[in-house]
Structure formats: structure tokens, C-alpha cells
């Protein structure tokens, strides 16, 4: 099994990252380089989280083996080995041979840093650029990132000059490398604590509120009102942009040098607007730059950028509106079925997507009723209590992990107890659950936050390229300090435990933080305590209240604006529900008509076709004969009248209400 666990996790994490990227990105419409760069960033970050527990168990085994081969308190180079244990050191099932992990961590870490600081910012500007050629997009990206890259080069150059001039510093290349890593981890830790403080409270609270049916339904109504406003704004913005495109398309003729740019813009427009505007190729009048004023290429680049943004936003709001409607209808069905005496879940609308037969066989209406109306609320409550317990342990450990005698960090206590018995499976499971929970708290916040319309991760393939690249950049900056924080909580980091024991391979790649003592002994230890204040602020929703005061409507139960938006959203959902009901009634009537009179219509049509064929053959045989005195037009007219009467749609006297307004019926009828 040597190295097999590492290989299995590498493959599993790849498919996990691919699945999540497929959920948020669009492989068909987005550029391949954007998909590959985002997939690589997500994959490397998830890989660090999954592989780190194997590094911990391997390090514990190496310490045991080193202690067994040395005398008590014997010095071995830069490490001090402990007294040999009476228990034999068993090799863990997931043991990774020496020399593999340092190379692995070095490749993974420096690749992620290259992505987050150099490649992904450049690709963000490239993807958001409105240029019409690759050269133009690269030029725009370089100009936009000139200040970004110049700032870092200026800081790094000033630091090098200071080190070269000051005789007290005698830094080598490894120490400069460690300083660069420390600077990147400091920036990441600053953002990490902010996101962690929000996730530690919001994740258990969201699962606890998930057991409240009334709460979820009211929040869905609130989201519907806000989304309808955003949807209307997106439609209005798209109309304005399309009007500008129409004017540009009419002013720039077929033989203008910039006509190719206009055609590129038209290809990015929705199909209905393309058909409406056309290409204006019927006008062969030559252009005259002296008489007419034409837009410049720079203005077309700006218009191209606006078209891409407006079309993406309009498509996203349309898809999100349909998803929100399905969610609201389902929550209303749950509220109705809670009082059902038959204990079978009844849906108001049938699913538009075909369901799996295996799921239909096991997930029957009775099973669905017991899960949705009885078991699911209790499951969410129990899960919320477990997550809240984990959050309390994390907060306590963040405030006490610097204490080594006595050991106050609960995660360090768990690992040290398992280390005494060399229970490697327990060590790996404890490490995995700890770092997995920390990752969920941080990464879920990255998926939830929204910076206006510039950064927003929308599911169902509705995330734009800029947001995907920005998320990959955030993951690469947050994951290394997250792992260092985890090693500090478990006292596997020698900088925290103050013991000269063999470090993990991940810590050895990071280098000794003793080069910058004020960061190792100050910022890394005391700044994570700020998570307590952030958790308290999140618990009392101070950020939500501040945003609400600034005019950004947030869901708050004691707000009058929230109540108004809930009522508005409820009315919108009711209208959409009536509309869909009328559509289904019309489809059911047409289906019943086909089932009831379909065979009769087919036989009538076949009889008419057979008669027509006989008449045509009879007319062909008598073509050369003189015209007959008698005709059969009256019989043919009678058959046409019978066919028309049979094709007419009968009145439905089985409807629920006879006095329905015909104007409210579906247009498809």
C-alpha cells in the first residue's frame, strides 16, 4: 500500500474539483484556458487539504522510528529525539516513502503561487477585455495589471536594497524565499480569519434554520422579490445596450474597415436581437469619413465589453429565476403535505426533467413524505448541533493553541493521545475532519459572498469567467495559511510547539519562520484570536444590519422593508404558479383530445386519402374522354365539411369553473 493512498486521493480530488467546476462553470461556452486555469487552481487547493493528513501520519511514524533507533534524549543533528517507546512502531497503511512528499509539496505550492500572483490576475483582465483580437486583449490585460505588478516589484526591490545596504543582515536565498512565503501567508491569514469567523457561525445557523419550514419559505419569497428587481434591471440594461448596437450597426456599412468588429459584437448578442437588427448588407452606399461621424475602435471595444457583461447577466437572472420558482413551489408543497392524512407526498407540478427509474423505485411518495415532513427537520437540527460543537472547539483552540504546557488546544490533545498508541487511522480521521471543517467554513464563505455584480459564483453553469478566475485566485491564497493554521492547532508545527522534533514535509517547504520573529511569535499567534470577535459580530448579524442601513436590503425578521419584500415575493410566486397551472391545464386538454379522438381522425384522414387516390386515378383514365354531364363535387364538399367538424376542438364541460375568463387562458390553446 506504499503510495497507493496518495495516488487514490490524487485521482479522487481531481474528479471532485471537476464536478464542482462543472456545476458553476460552462464548459461549452467559456474559453478552454479559463476552464483549465480554474480547474488547476481548485484542484491544487483541494489536493493540499486531502493530502495533509497523510503527511501528518507519516511524520508521526518517522518520529517513532527515529526515537526507537536512538537513546533517550540523544541529539540527532538539529532534532532532539524522544525516549524510545515500549510499543513497536507499526508502519501506517498510508505510509508515503521518504523523499516523495517534499517534492510533491514543492511542486504543488509553487504552482499555486504562480497561478494566484501572476497568471490568474492576467487572465482575469484578458477574459474581461472587450478586444477583438488576441493581441488587443493581451495589451489591455498588461496595461490593467501594470499597477498591480509594479506595486509588488517596487516593494520587493526596496526590500532588496535595504538588505544589501544594511550590514546587519546577511540573508541567503533560502531566507529570502522564506520571507516571500511569510509575506504571502500573512496576507492570506488576514483574509482567512475574516472568512473563518463568518463561516463558524453561519454554517451551523443555516442548517438550524433549514429545519424551519416557515423560515425557508419566507426567505425564498424575499429572494424572489430581490431577484425580480435584478431581473428587470438586467432586461432594461440589455435593451439599452442592444439599442446602441443597433445604431452602430446601421451607421457602419458593409465596406467600412470596422465592420468586422461590428459583426463580432453582433455574434455575442442574443438570437432574437440578431434577427431583428440583421447585418445591414442591403445598403451598398460607400462611406465618407468627412460627412459622417463613425465610432472609433476604442468605443467599439468598450461596447463589446458591455455586450458580453449584459448578455451574461441577463442569462444568469433568467436561469436563477426559474430555479427559485422551483424551490418556492417545492417549499409550498412541503407546507401543504405536512398535514396530509395519507402520508404520501403530492407535488403541485410534475418535474420537467426525467427522473431516474432507480430513484423512483426507492424514493416513493411515502418515503418522500417521511423524509421531507418528519425526518429531515430533525436531521438538520442534529447536524446543526454537531457543527456548532465543532465551531466551539475551533474557537477555543484558536485562542489557546500557543499554550504547550499545559496543552489547551483540543485538537492537539486528540492528536497526542492517538500518537501515544500509534493509531494512525484515528490520527488521519481526526486530522481530516478538522481540516475539512475548517475548509468548509472558509470555502463556503467564498462561494456565498457577492461583490455587487463583479464577483458572484452562481450555480447551474451561470458563473462568468472573471468570477471563476477570481475564486481560483482566492483559493490559492487562502489554502497555505489554512494548512499552517491547522498544523498550529494540532501542534505539528515546530514554530508553535517550540520543540525540536522532526517537522512535517509541508512545514519544511515553508521554511523556518524564525527569520521574521515578529511574525512567527506575534502575528501568527495572536491574530487568530480575532475570530472570537468576528463570531460574536456574525451571531448578532452586525454586518447584515450595517448593510441594511446602507440601503442594501438584507433578510431580517424585525425589519419593515423585509416584510414588504416578503409580501411582494409571495404575490410574484402566486402569479407564476397560476400561469404554470394554466399551461398544464391546456396541455392536459390537448393530450386528452388526442387520446380520445386521435384514432378516429387517423381513420378519417386515411379514408379521405384513399378516396382522393381513387378519384385521381379515375380522372387520369378519363382524361382523354369528353367531359361528363354529371359531377361529384357536392360529395367532395360534404366530405371536407365532415373533416373540418371532426378536427374542431370540443368544449370542456368538465372544467373546475365554467365562468373562467377566456382572456386568462393560455395563449398556446
TrEMBL record:
A Pfam family the protein falls into: LMBR1
Keyword Transit peptide included in the entry's annotation: no
Skewed-composition ranges (Polar residues): 618-634
Coiled coil: 224-251
Domain of life: Eukaryota
Membrane-spanning parts: 6-21, 33-52, 103-126, 146-165, 177-201, 378-396, 425-446, 523-542
Topology of this chain in the membrane: Multi-pass membrane protein
GO cellular component, one term: membrane
Organism annotation: Neodrepanis coruscans (wattled asity)
Biased composition (Basic and acidic residues): 582-617, 635-644
Protein's name in the database: LMBD2 protein
Principal location class: membrane
Keywords: Coiled coil, Membrane, Transmembrane, Transmembrane helix
UniProt family annotation: Belongs to the LIMR family.
Composition bias, Acidic residues: 658-669
Region (Disordered) residue spans: 576-669
Subcellular location: Membrane
GO BP, one annotated term: adrenergic receptor signaling pathway
Amino acid at each position: 500500500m506504499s503510495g497507493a493512498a496518495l495516488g487514490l486521493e490524487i485521482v479522487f480530488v481531481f474528479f471532485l474539483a471537476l464536478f464542482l467546476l462543472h456545476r458553476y462553470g460552462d464548459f461549452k461556452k467559456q474559453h478552454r484556458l479559463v476552464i483549465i486555469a480554474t480547474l488547476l487552481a481548485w484542484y491544487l487547493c483541494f489536493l493540499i487539504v486531502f493530502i495533509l493528513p497523510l503527511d501528518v501520519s507519516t511524520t508521526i511514524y518517522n518520529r517513532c522510528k527515529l526515537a526507537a533507533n536512538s537513546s533517550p534524549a540523544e541529539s540527532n543533528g538539529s532534532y532532539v529525539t524522544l525516549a524510545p517507546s515500549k510499543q513497536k512502531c507499526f508502519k501506517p497503511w498510508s505510509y508515503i516513502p521518504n523523499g516523495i512528499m517534499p517534492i510533491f509539496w514543492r511542486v504543488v505550492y509553487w504552482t499555486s503561487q504562480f497561478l494566484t500572483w501572476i497568471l490568474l490576475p492576467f487572465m482575469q483582465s484578458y477574459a474581461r477585455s472587450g478586444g477583438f483580437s488576441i493581441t488587443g486583449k493581451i495589451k489591455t490585460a498588461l496595461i490593467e495589471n501594470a499597477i498591480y505588478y509594479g506595486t509588488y516589484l517596487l516593494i520587493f526591490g526596496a526590500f532588496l536594497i535595504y538588505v544589501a545596504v544594511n550590514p546587519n543582515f546577511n540573508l541567503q536565498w533560502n531566507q529570502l524565499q522564506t520571507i516571500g512565503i511569510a509575506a504571502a501567508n500573512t496576507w492570506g491569514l488576514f483574509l482567512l480569519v475574516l472568512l473563518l469567523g463568518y463561516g463558524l457561525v453561519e454554517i451551523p445557523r443555516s442548517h438550524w434554520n433549514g429545519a424551519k419550514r416557515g423560515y425557508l419559505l419566507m426567505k425564498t419569497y424575499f429572494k424572489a422579490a430581490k431577484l425580480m428587481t435584478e431581473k428587470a434591471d438586467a432586461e432594461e440594461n440589455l435593451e439599452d445596450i442592444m439599442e446602441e448596437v443597433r445604431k452602430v450597426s446601421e451607421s457602419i456599412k458593409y465596406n467600412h474597415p470596422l465592420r468586422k468588429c461590428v459583426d463580432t459584437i453582433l455574434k455575442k448578442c442574443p438570437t432574437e436581437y440578431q434577427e431583428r437588427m440583421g447585418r445591414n448588407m442591403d445598403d451598398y452606399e460607400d462611406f465618407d469619413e468627412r460627412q459622417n461621424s463613425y465610432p472609433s475602435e476604442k468605443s467599439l471595444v468598450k461596447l463589446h465589453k458591455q455586450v458580453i457583461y449584459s448578455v451574461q447577466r441577463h442569462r444568469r437572472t433568467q436561469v436563477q429565476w426559474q430555479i427559485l420558482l422551483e424551490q418556492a413551489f417545492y417549499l409550498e408543497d412541503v407546507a401543504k403535505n405536512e398535514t396530509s392524512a395519507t402520508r404520501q407526498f403530492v407535488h403541485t407540478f410534475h418535474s420537467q426533467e426525467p427522473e431516474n427509474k432507480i430513484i423512483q423505485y426507492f424514493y416513493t411518495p411515502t418515503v418522500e413524505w417521511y423524509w421531507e415532513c418528519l425526518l429531515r427537520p430533525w436531521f438538520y437540527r442534529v447536524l446543526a448541533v454537531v457543527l456548532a460543537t465543532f465551531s466551539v472547539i475551533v474557537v477555543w483552540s484558536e485562542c489557546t493553541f500557543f499554550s504547550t504546557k499545559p496543552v489547551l488546544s483540543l485538537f492537539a490533545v486528540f492528536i497526542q493521545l492517538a500518537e501515544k498508541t500509534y493509531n494512525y487511522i484515528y490520527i488521519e480521521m481526526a486530522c481530516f475532519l478538522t481540516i475539512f471543517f475548517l475548509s468548509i467554513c472558509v470555502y463556503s464563505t467564498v462561494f456565498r459572498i457577492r461583490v455587487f455584480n463583479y464577483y458572484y459564483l452562481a450555480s447551474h453553469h451561470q458563473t462568468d469567467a472573471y468570477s471563476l478566475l477570481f475564486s481560483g485566485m482566492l483559493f490559492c491564497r487562502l489554502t497555505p495559511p489554512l494548512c499552517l493554521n491547522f498544523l498550529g492547532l494540532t501542534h505539528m508545527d515546530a514554530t508553535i510547539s517550540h520543540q525540536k522534533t522532526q517537522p512535517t514535509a509541508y512545514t519544511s517547504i515553508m521554511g523556518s519562520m524564525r527569520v521574521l520573529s515578529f511574525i512567527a511569535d506575534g502575528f501568527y499567534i495572536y491574530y487568530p484570536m480575532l475570530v472570537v470577535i468576528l463570531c460574536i459580530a456574525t451571531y448578532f448579524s452586525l454586518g447584515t444590519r450595517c448593510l441594511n442601513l446602507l440601503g442594501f436590503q438584507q433578510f431580517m425578521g424585525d425589519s419593515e422593508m423585509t416584510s414588504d419584500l416578503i409580501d411582494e415575493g409571495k404575490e410574484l410566486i402566486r402569479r407564476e404558479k397560476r400561469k404554470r397551472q394554466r399551461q398544464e391545464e391546456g396541455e392536459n386538454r390537448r393530450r386528452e383530445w388526442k387520446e380520445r379522438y386521435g384514432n378516429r381522425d387517423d381513420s378519417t384522414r386515411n379514408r379521405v386519402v384513399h378516396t382522393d387516390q381513387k378519384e385521381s386515378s379515375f380522372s387520369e383514365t378519363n382524361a382523354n374522354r369528353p367531359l361528363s354531364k354529371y359531377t361529384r363535387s357536392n360529395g367532395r364538399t360534404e366530405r371536407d365539411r365532415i373533416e373540418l367538424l371532426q378536427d374542431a376542438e370540443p368544449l370542456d364541460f368538465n372544467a373546475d369553473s365554467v365562468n373562467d375568463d377566456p382572456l386568462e387562458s393560455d395563449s398556446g390553446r
